[in-house]
């Protein structure tokens, strides 16, 4: 199968892989690198400053979130159209570009697989419904629209080499993610207050009003915001971590940070919403909770968690190799269906 030519369409909000935040770009990068390592001929459509072992095809210099001079919509449509104008050069396009790329799929002969990284709002669902007969993969069983033609659930995979095991527990609670109400930073602060433990908060501020009103007033010597962090910054946090708090207020779609923390051996205390139950093994790699009081109580049980077991579960279920092998099976299914359709 590696004789096939594959295009991976990454977003252009951030560089691929991202320097700090950028979950979709991270996954697109991990898939591309994993496929190249297994002998695939891969072209990555991403920003020009992206870093990859695949062939890089770019018409956008930098991510629009990293350069305010770039108009997001102009960048997106120059980028997406470029990929589809080259569709005939590939046996398959693997899109990580949400609903926008779907509008091009019936204009080309090349089959298109869309990994749905989450439904940002109900308003985008009509586009998915129009193209419901396309090929789709979900990133968790919990994040699916019932009317779509899913070929599989393929969990996101991470590069475990980036996150060495932290064998000893640190003293701090950590929050790592977007500073946004959806991610429950205010709940993490409440748990820190209830437990009396220090909290380090890291991530991009995506909602300025939320940060100003519900986060900043609570910052002090024990509860600190340190800004966005790159991979070394994450590992510095994991080395200090007693546990990662992930008290999301809406159903989680996947949660890369859950896997990254567990890969480093850090237990996760997560709200039992969406995919958290699929990523975290309750009582073994962390604890699933329903409110801040349960979260505070779970912190008293952290000694029950084996840090080596956390990492082993990530190796088995959420590694790049496991993800890429699963996508190879999906690609085979698509090629078989396409061959049947032509015969």
What does this structure look like?
With 343 residues, this protein is α/β, with parallel strands linked by helices. The protein has helices at 23-37, 72-85, 98-102, 125-130, 185-195, 208-215, 231-240, 256-263, 276-279, 292-298, 307-317, 320-342; strands at 5-9, 41-45, 55-57, 92-95, 112-116, 135-138, 150-153, 172-176, 199-202, 223-227, 241-246, 268-271, 286-289. The longest helix is centred in the last third of the chain and has 23 residues, at 320-342.
The amount of beta strand, in percent, is: 15-25%
Q: How do the strands of the widest beta sheet line up side by side? A: 3-2-1-4-5-6-7
Radius of gyration from the CA trace? Answer: 20 Å
Low-confidence stretches: none
The average pLDDT value, as a whole number, equals 96
Strand count: 13
Helix/strand/pairing category: alpha/beta
In N-to-C order, the SSE pattern is EHEEHEHEHEEEHEHEHEHEHEHHH
Largest sheet: number of strands, sense, barrel closure: 7 strands, parallel
- Helix percentage range: 25-40%
Task: Specify the overall morphology.
Answer: globular
What is the tally of helical segments? 12
What is the terminal separation in angstroms? 20 Å
Question: Any key phrases for this structure?
Answer:
343 residues, alpha/beta, 7-stranded parallel β-sheet, 6-stranded parallel β-sheet
